[in-house]
Amino acid sequence: MSRAIFAEIKAGRGVDGGVWFDATGVPKSLLETTYVDTLRRYALAGVDISSEPMLVAPAPHTSLGGLVIDAQCRVLRADGSPISGLFAAGEVTGGVHGLNRIGGNAGTEVLVFGRIAGDSAASFAKMV
Ligand SMILES: Cc1cc2nc3c(=O)[nH]c(=O)nc-3n(C[C@H](O)[C@H](O)[C@H](O)COP(=O)(O)OP(=O)(O)OC[C@H]3O[C@@H](n4cnc5c(N)ncnc54)[C@H](O)[C@@H]3O)c2cc1C
Q1: Which of 5, 16, 25, 65 is most deeply packed, by most CB within 10 A?
Q2: Which among 97, 101, 110 is the best mutation to test ligand 1's pocket, defined by most ligand atoms within 8 Å of the CB?
Q3: pLDDT tens sequence across 43-98
Q4: Neighbouring C-alpha atoms within 13 Å toward the C-beta of 10
Q5: Residues 15 and 44 in one domain
Q6: Please, are residues 27 and 79 in contact by the beta-carbon 8 Å criterion?
Q7: Is the shortest distance between the CB of 63 and ligand 1 below 6 Å?
Q8: 68 belongs to a structural domain
């Protein structure tokens, strides 16, 4: 959705740098339980998203780095061969989440891939 919104804005079809997001068809009781932060945040700006559309735009939240890793978290060269003794996990790597990292998935990423990278580095250290 972020990519589609960005494409609309880039093509000149945006409004004040964003697009209208209409959640007025969502029951207010659902907004109050599931989207309470969004409801409150827009209310602070004087917008009641249960009865009027909100202006939204994608924004950079964090960066996904350029290191490519394999399943053992070995850092790969451009030709796909591993760089001996170099392991990586987390935001310094890219490609783990596809085009867009879904909110909340970074925590899982650093735990899962951090563990794998640590294990791989320990195994490597025992070999050399
Ligand atoms: C405001 C904010 C809110 C977030 N909320 C969430 C959330 O709700 N859920 C979620 O899943 N993710 C969230 N994230 C993303 C998540 O926190 C990060 O993706 C994650 O912490 C990245 O972990 P990392 O270990 O890859 O990098 P980092 O946590 O950035 O760790 C890198 C470490 O390397 C150290 N370092 C840098 N350079 C050097 C150097 N030269 N030598 C030695 N050490 C160095 C840094 O000091 C740092 O401690 C949020 C991020 C931000 C910024």
Answers
A1: 5
A2: 110
A3: 999 999 999 999 999 887 777 889 999 999 999 999 999 999 999 999 999 988 87
A4: 7
A5: yes
A6: no
A7: no
A8: no
